[in-house]
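Entry 0007
Protein: TraG family protein
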Amino acid sequence: MNRKLKKKIILNIPYVVIGLLATNLGEAWRISEGINVSEKLQSLIIGGGFENAFINPLPSIHPFDLLIGLACVAALRLAVYLKGKNAKKFRHGSEYGSARWGKPSDIEPFKDPNPKNNVILSQTEQITLSFRPAQPKYARNKNVLVVGGSGSGKTRFFIKPNLLQCDSKDYPCSFVVTDPKGSVVLECGNALLKKGYRIKIFNTINFNKSMHYNPFAYINSEKDIFCNHSHCQHKG
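Output (structure tokens):
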């Protein structure tokens, strides 16, 4: 027996008990003397009709009595439903909010079992590089905003760890890094080269240390100019 079925059975036991007891009410009405409602009510209240019906605690199986029991159960169930539908939803213990610090178990479904297939967020938190995880409800945008003052460790604790974890075979990726201090390429460049990356540097301060792009290097004749011009017009 599964848990849901067991829970339904337990919740409906009170209705069954009340319904069986209510059959005695039907029996009391049925055996009371009188030919109209007024006489039967007098017989029930004054003549001891209820006492006679409940002398035997066992439920009655007469069709009329069973119908009365079923009607009582239906009325009770309707009352419980209406009361529950209109009830206020209280969150006891959360009157001042329910926010809390996250636990490792909270982010576990968002991680890939292979550590190299994750974006490193902290020492204990990562998020998978996959845009289609096994369970789609755990798919998340991979944009990360890191906010911190100068010297707070944005490069040391976020940029460098993710650059050095560059050998994911399942999700290979390229990096575009702004390096105002010029230290990232010196400290992480060799590691990227060993993993097969090609490094290109664009230095707007010292062009002697920057790679260049010269479009005229591809022009060897007047025909090349005409071809390039036609290509641009076609693309436009």
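Curator remark: The chain is about 45% helix and 5% strand. The chain has a mean pLDDT of 80.
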